Amino acid sequence: MMLPSLPDRHTLPLPAQVAQMIVVRASGYLFDQQIRYPQWEAPAKTLQTWIQEWGVGGVILLGGSAPELALRIQQLQEWATIPLLTAADVEEGIGQRFAGATWFPPPMALAAIAQGSLTAARSYAEQMGAITAQEAQAIGLNWMLAPVTDVNNNPRNPVINIRAFGETPTVVTDLITAFIQGAQAHPVLTTAKHFPGHGDTAVDSHLQLPILPHSLERLRQVEFPPFQAAIAAGVDAVMTAHLQIPALDPTYPATLSHQILTNELRQNLGFNGLIVTDALIMGAIADHFGANEAAVLAVEAGADILLMPADPVGAIQAICQAVDTGRLTPERIQASVERIWRVKQKVCAAHSDSQFSHAWEQLSPTVQPQELVTDLAQPGAIALVDRILEDSSKVHQPILSRLNQADQRSDRRNLILVDNLLNCKELGHYTPAVKIPEALGYSLQLVDRHTPCHSLESSHLPWQPTLLQLFIRGNPFRGSAGLTQTAQEWLTFLIQSEQLQALILYGSPYTLTQFLPLLPPDVPYVFTYGQTDQAQAIALKALFGSEIST
Prior knowledge:
Layout lengths: L13 H6 L2 E6 L16 H11 L3 E5 L3 H14 L5 E4 L19 H7 L3 H22 L3 E2 L24 H15 L7 E5 L20 H17 L4 E4 L17 H11 L5 E3 L6 H4 L4 H11 L4 E2 L4 H13 L5 H19 L7 H4 L12 H4 L3 H14 L1 E3 L16 E6 L13 H8 L3 E5 L18 E7 L12 H12 L3 E8 L1 H7 L9 E4 L4 H12 L6
Parallel strand pairs: 1-2, 1-8, 2-3, 3-4, 5-6, 6-7, 10-11, 10-12, 12-13, 13-14
Antiparallel strand pairs: 9-14
């Protein structure tokens, strides 16, 4: 499949220009019956209409394996008359979203490493950026919605949390710069998000509109520096934050604020790349502004790309009408299209010396499926993941450990607690968290926040030495960054009844801090930022050591 050529942007009619500013959500799966989020992901016929007839400028993808996504992207590009931007949230590597590729630990793991060696953390970040970009290019993604550039200085932050590269501007600046520099070895776009800074909020903008009460002076000291560093490093895009900062704009959230996007980001910080909104269907925007009005407001504010508008066609029509009535100028639209053309030239014709109108016609097929096996999850990438996991973990092995007690009962329990079992891709029959304890004689019990806890009050429950494995991290849409009520009740019950034999926590260091004061000193524990098979195997090896057969 050859990518179509990039036409002269000046020849495009207004609706076609505006459509290039729209990026829609698409399932990474090939077939409609596989769609997991029908409220956001259109069926193939609708998606094809948006791409072929309306000419939207890009897609953001989620779901499927990496090889399947490669085929999916080929399909979408074949529908397009102008090559698409193909984006994905790959903050933890391609494997975070698409099975089979490399899945890194959350970025905050690098901040933990930086406490001991900033040099090592920088090296890891640069390699992480390079591997993620290389694997993105291999499967046809040309736009990484990463790195997260927020300073997570609020432990209760439910939406950024361990997605950030740290809790201080200095560490975040160093690590996101290294990530961007690593990614620049490949013709794939990078994105600093979420401007002007989403790290000091305790409200999930997927659900509500957070308000950041800080002064401009505080923003310039804490929130802005990492974004300034990203711009200096040549980041291609900056994503907006759905939050309100009264000190800058008492009326509109950042995504819809001319003061924040144009005056601060464009003029004061000197950013000349793409400004992309966060998803416009999120509650912080969708619940306060009309779908089409939000699209117009975002363009007025200075956005070049509208990500996931609730009604893509309606957004195109509303923006065109705003131009027709004089609310927006044709030059405002053309400025955004010019920036879009610039990045499309970079990622789709990066190695050609030809002019825009012919460069893309000379490219090889966007994806070579036969090469995926040699491009994805290579031994060096897997080894790097192992090193990051090992260097960022915390292990407590007391001399008088409950694991070393002479009486090793045969009725030991492996209690695994997750947020939602129906949406937990980290667990399966053969994942280490299940199979290793099983080999050691532990019986499995699975619990999530939907499991009733009334049984904990029953006095007739048998006493069982328990390995507790908690999979808890801040997750968008949950609205909470710490322990769920279910996790709190189980942890309290096991401690008070002295059944807690050992603990492994996969996810958030803030959760570890929350319950460490309650943990008996003879209970060994392991904390790891990761939740993948690799993280599980490394954590269980740290806990049980030589008991695990190799």
